[in-house]
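So, can you check this record?

>
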Amino acid sequence: LLKFAVSDGAVAATLSVGAGPGGARPVVRMRDKAGKELSLQRTTVIRSRGESTYSYTFSLPAGAEMGVLEIAALTGSLDRVVRFEFRDVPVGP
């Protein structure tokens, strides 16, 4: 995870993924503290020399707080899920 920001009703996350043989785009999910999945608004991808940088923007409803950012990298026979939980720090717009 390279960058994470919350501002004006949106949550933005930027992550870098090393490209392996047969690599697939990571699956990224965000949920608020109530467990509701946030809507994906925009995705951008920059590829350079074996690495891909993905930027995701999700909408965050007014009054909601971030609860979980989950990144699932599904690449060939290797499946990994990285989960970032926001427990003690209130993250809201």
